[in-house]
Amino acid sequence: MTMNESLSETPEFKYTKFWVRVATYIIDTILLGIIISIPRWIMIATFSFDLRLENFLSDDQELILTPLFTPAFLIFIGVQVIIFWLYYAFTESRLGASPGKLVFQLRVTTTDGKLISFKRATGHAFARMLSFIPFLTGYLMAAFTDKTQALHDLLAGCIVIPERQVVTTPFEEKPEAKAQQTV
What we know:
Layout: H1 18-47, H2 71-95, H3 99-103, E1 106-110, H4 118-131, H5 137-140, H6 151-156, E2 158-162, H7 175-182
Antiparallel strand pairs: 1-2
């Protein structure tokens, strides 16, 4: 290291481009749709749950107001939320990225480039739900931020970077090993 070089407090990363993030979003949406459709079909068959428009019209085509928040509907929504959460929390904490990001060799990391924990990935997944409201505005934020961070990235303190830039940290030594070295 020369005298002119200085250590910066935060490393510089090559952040993922907005359009690449759009492509990863499309891939994840398709995969998640396929995964969610399996329990959806099971629940529709089990609960005879159907939300087609004609079910809200009587035989003489008058609108029937039926209660929307039935136990079956709440279970239906709950299962979808759980699948959404586990899809993102497990893949981002265990694999470093969702399947859509894995296709492009990207990783979701903390702002200092370290892979995220399951706890942070859970926060990231639930913050992602806020990015949908209204009209995917939270996702569109990525086009206008310096680090191409969407709303859920900002809330969870995450960035999306190429796999090769992930900062790997050495495993912590066990306390016994440290004690033996000092003796």
